[in-house]
Amino acid sequence: VSFPTDTSVFEGQDLSVLVDSDSPINLKWQSEEYMSCDDCFDPYVSPNNTADYILEYEDEFQCFTQDTSFRVELLDYSVFVPNSFSPNNDGLNDEFIPVTVGVSELMYMYVYDNWGKLVFETTDLEMGWDGTVNGNPVSPNSMFTYKIKVVGESSRTSELIGTVAVVGF
User: Fold this and answer.
1) Nearest-CA neighbor of 146 among 119, 95, 110?
2) Which residues in 105-138 are b (16+ Cβ under 10 Å) and which e?
3) What pTM, to 2 d.p., does this model score?
4) Is 61 left (phi over 0), alpha (psi -120 to 50) or beta?
5) Are 58 and 64 in contact (CB under 8 A)?
6) Are 27 and 57 in contact (CB under 8 A)?
7) What percent of the chain has pLDDT over 90?
8) Between the CA atoms of 124, 127, 132 and 137, what dihedral angle is there, to the nearest 10 degrees?
C-alpha cells in the first residue's frame, strides 16, 4: 500500500491525494479541513490552514486495522534565490533576481563584494542586479554575498542571506 507523504501547497491551491493498494482495502479519511470525499482512494484537499489528514484502513476481511497520516503545510509565499548567474547578454540568467510567488513587497535586496562593500541595492521586486559595479562588469567567476528581506501577502517576513557566483561571460 502506498500513501501520501507530507507536502505543502500555496493558499487557495488544491492538492490531489492518491492511495494505491495491490489488495482490496476499506478506508476512511478524517480531517478538520476540506476533503472532496472521506471514503475514496483519490480525494482532493483544499486546506485553509496547515492540516493533518488521517487515513484509517483495513483489509477487506477486517483482519487488521491500521492508520497513517500526512501533513499539508499551507504556504503563503515562496522565494527562490539562484546561486549563480551569467551577465553576458545572451538572454539567459543575465541578472541576479529572486523568483517569488505570493510576495507583496521586497523590503530590500543588498549585494556585497568580498570586502563587504555594498555594490547593489533595490526595493523593486522586478529589478535584478546586472553584474556591474559603477557601470563596469565584475570579474567572471567571482562571488558576492546577498541579503534579501521579503514580505508575504499575509504580512509575514523572511530574510535570506547567501552567496551568488557571477559565472563566465
Assistant:
1) 110
2) ebeebbbbeeeeeebbebeeeeebbbbeeeeeeb
3) 0.65
4) alpha
5) yes
6) yes
7) 72
8) 180
